[in-house]
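Batch manifest line 266
LIGAND: D-malate
JOB: complex structure
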Amino acid sequence: MNTYMVNGVELAAVDRGTGLPLLLVHGFPLNHSLWQAQIDGCAERCHVIAPDLRGFGTSGVTEGEVSMEQMADDLAGLLDTMGIQEPVVYCGLSMGGYIAWEFWRKHRPRVAGLILCSTRAAADSPEAAANRRLMADRVLGEGPAPIADAMLPRLAAEVTLTRYPERVEAVRRMIFSNDPRGIAAASRGMANRADAKSLLPEIACPTLLIAGQHDQIAPVAEMRAMAEAIPHARLVEISGAGHLGPLENPAEVNAAILSFLGELKR
Ligand code: MLT
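JOB STATUS: finished
ARTIFACT:
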């Protein structure tokens, strides 16, 4: 892990391999190690950059609220600081996808291709947003346990829970290693995020959507509708996976990413 001073905060990131940059943006409330199998599986074929977002992992924390736009600006700033000016393949999971919409809105010349894993274009309903704000307050008072209890049962598919308990344990460790102030700030940022549905027809770059067969948070049907609304998109469904395909079925996710990278290079 290297650290970089970006927009007033220290961001930690894995920087491995050479060639086409692949920016791996984790979900909530996780860290870069969600992508460990992709870092290991893709770094021989491209330049993998896997940051901890502001407030997560070993990156610096901002109190209050951190917007999806701020996170997108952090990623653009990180690329600047690393000296990466060529367009990247932006690959984001869930919250990493919410940030992708803002990255596309503000930094689109930097995007060579988009990979959207287990994410949604719709904003939160008023009830969902209110729940996130309540959860932010609870996490500040009690630590990460309430968010771990609420999310863990919905993140992984049944088969992962029974066959790969160590993978679920890794997710639990990621959640508990985060600073409650970082979790709360991102939670409030997600509650206030803009709806991105009207943006989908404007996404002009090659796009791959990766959906988990059993995802309860970003269901396959919703992701298929997104793929139909984005002009140059196709969808790959990951068998046996819930919301965290990259960790639940890394072989299928790596194959999908590497084949997309191969198409971009042609
Ligand atoms: C994530 O994986 O980033 C979260 O499920 C996003 C969310 O809570 O909407």
